[in-house]
Amino acid sequence: MHDASGCNSTYNTHDEPRWYDMPSMVFISALAEVDAIMGDDAKLIGDICRAAEELHPRFIAIAGTPIPMMMGTDFGGVAHLIEQRTGIPTFGFATNGMNSYNRGASMALAAVARRFCPPDSGVRERSAPDGAISVNLLGVTPLDFSVTGNVEAMQKSFAGAGFRINSCWAMGDSWERLTAAGKADVNVVVSSCGSGLAEVLREKYRIPAVSGVPVGEAAQKELFADIRTAAENGRDIDISAPDADDAAFVVIGEPVQSASVARALRLDCGIESVSVICPLDFPDEDAVFARLKSAAAVIADPLYRPAAPAGCRFIELPHEGYSGRTFRDRIPLIMGENFNNWMKKEI
User: Fold this and answer.
1) What structural domains and CATH numbers belong to the chain?
2) Which of 84, 86, 213, 328 is deepest in the core (most CB within 10 A)?
3) Which residue ranges of the chain lie beneath pLDDT 70?
4) Residue in 53, 95, 55, 94 with CA at minimum distance from that of residue 77
5) Which pTM does this prediction carry?
6) Confidence (pLDDT) at 290
7) DSSP state, residue 133
């Protein structure tokens, strides 16, 4: 991370909760004031090359923050020089801290697949020789799913429906399985972080993509039906997010997860008047407040409680990408029938 000294705790403890229990290879460039004024890319390049010689990573990624943006750092050029010196594949991401996490995560996952997944050989080698439909789960990030069991529950839902998980991008899977993503029949985009990756895998292997999360006992059956349809006709299927200014029930949060929750509310709970708000689509918080004026119930991260109108029922659904680790111990299991059990307690 090209950033000031002291900021690495943010990346190592807030953005990646798994690193409390496993080693991390994220480092900070320790930008000083003089570096911000004078530049000195040679120091950045030298430090990274020395670390790479010692640690022998599979690849190197350099990402930016607001200070390098103001400095005009050429991340592509820096990455090119480092790769020339070390012989290690190197990525440069001109992120700047002014956008949401899903944009940077989508860029990173797509870049890895573009660089390391082999080209299409023209011969389709299925990963499920028994005839089962195999899927890649795209956008499985700790910011979207945390470490509270929802990833494992999601995988169990797919396996229980007869699907074979070819790869899981990118929590808890091996490098060999990730780079074999071209063997899958369908890409399942389970968060917006997987959207760029889905585009790369479609370009490389012509694999169709279906968006959605297996939330709700009845709702997940609709997702599974979409996957089977996509496997047959090769066409993408996006989950539709209901949008109405006067909906009684409003879901706020990550686009794919929120749309999946809305579908479960409709199919599993019989709630027809549902709307989804993705805060990334709104220019400011006042627009969110305005949309909630007529809401009778809201499902959202606890940080959105002050936005709910008086008398509105507020149902907490913490999200690590919104509130970090603050409410992690209150994240419920919502995959499959777990959603139904959770809603029985809340409604």
Assistant:
1) 8-98 (3.40.50.1980), 134-233 (3.40.50.1980), 249-346 (no CATH)
2) 213
3) 122-129, 281-283
4) 94
5) 0.93
6) 86
7) P
